[in-house]
Amino acid sequence: MASEYFLLKQIEQLLVGINNSYWSLANHDPLVETARLKILTQHYNGHIREKAVLCLGLMREISALPELIMRANDWAEPVRRAARQSIRRLLTAENTLQFRENLPDFIGLLNCSRDNHQILVDEILNFLSRPDNKSVLFDGLFSINKNVARLSLNILIERRLFPQQQIFHEAMRNSDPLVRVIAAKYQLRDAQQINKETINTLLKDSFAPLKQITLQYIIDNQLIISCSQLSILLFDRNALVRQRSGRLLMEQDIDPKAIYLDAYNTPDSRVSKRKIALLGLDEHHYQNIIEIAERSIDERYSSLYISALKIIIRHKPDDARTILFSAICHSSIFIAKAAVRIFFQQKIYLTLAELQISLKKSPSTAHVSLYYSLARKINKWDWIIFILDNSNADNSQLTQEHIYN
Asked: Which SUPFAM superfamilies match (predicted)?
């Protein structure tokens, strides 16, 4: 306590100067309060910063850990040294949780070039890796801070603090997909850790890149996966997952196109499944894909219509203009919006006459707004004509909006 009091007196004396009125009168609380010392760690005077940092360390004030980490990279070497000293004073068992939660800031020091922070960071990692502290690090897998969870996982695996299978199963319960990907990559590096349960866990994950990594591992290592499991993955929403699953099925002499055709032609199939079946047939270069896509232009199902529209445009680029012109006049605003996006992607532009026809056939006010967005792509003279021709009472508000936007 005597050391703290001595430092506080020194700080008060340094703050007496006229240039320090802001810092000394920032609030009316006594200087001994932690909040005041935290503020003083950012003072322009290096002597004050150094003494504030030392004082916080002597007070064993763990709430000041973020400020101490910041001062560990201070531009003044005495302040950096004082910050490291104070951080080391806080390395006690009751502060393990706070050190874990500040892991991203400690690791961030390694990217700073004012000093060599590797020694300090290693001390922190060694502290968290102690037998009596490692359970706190393990709990970090479910930290609210995603960066803490990711760093905790890396430390747990690299330092082998727990059995790898235990770490893997806990990490796969994390809601952060990147934590699950990190766990999967570590697991797939060790052939001894790979078993049927591990593969099933990875393939059932909702994150598409994780399934992609796993399927590529299966392909590279020539593992055998059941046809039923691959058939399920064949209808994944991610194209690369579907393609890799199809490749594995073909290696077992099973034609993915037959599975897709069966799903597409089954009357009870959900629209989402029929849509993926249509996309899958296109990915596998089915010879009658255009015929099936044209049959899929069903007004009842906008998602199936849009997928079929994209396939037809890709295979019949010469007819794209006519097909898209018909689609932007569709009664479903979702289909019309999709058609407009394809117009922009394909860099196809309508003429003034075509825009006027679309406007007259417009099924709703929302469609009118779409046609105005298309009109902005024509030349300026035609754009002005389009605006003036349609500045009637019905469309006056829309016209004004698009003039000023």
From this structure: ARM repeat
What CATH number is associated with residue 73? 1.25.10
DSSP state letter for 17: S
The number of folded domains in the chain is 3
Does residue 281 sit in the same domain as residue 364?
no
Tell which phi-psi region holds residue 285, choosing left (phi > 0), alpha (psi between -120 and 50) or beta: left
pTM: 0.78
Residue (of 31, 29, 25) closest to 10 by Cα position? 31
Contact yes or no for 388/354 (Cβ under 8 A): no
What's the pLDDT tens digit per position in 245-300? 999 999 999 999 999 999 999 888 899 999 999 999 999 999 999 999 988 887 67
Sign of CA dihedral 88, 94, 100, 104: negative
CA-CA-CA-CA torsion for 29, 31, 34, 39, nearest 10 degrees?
A: 90
What lies within 8 Å, CB to CB, of 274 at 6+ separation is 263, 264, 296, 304
Q: Which amino acid is at 251?
A: E
What's the rounded Cα separation, in Å, for the pair 188 and 199? Answer: 9
Do both 46 and 76 map to the same domain? yes
Tell me which residue range forms the domain holding 48: 1-90
What would the 3-class secondary structure string for 104-124 be? Answer: HHHHHHHHCCCCCCHHHHHHH
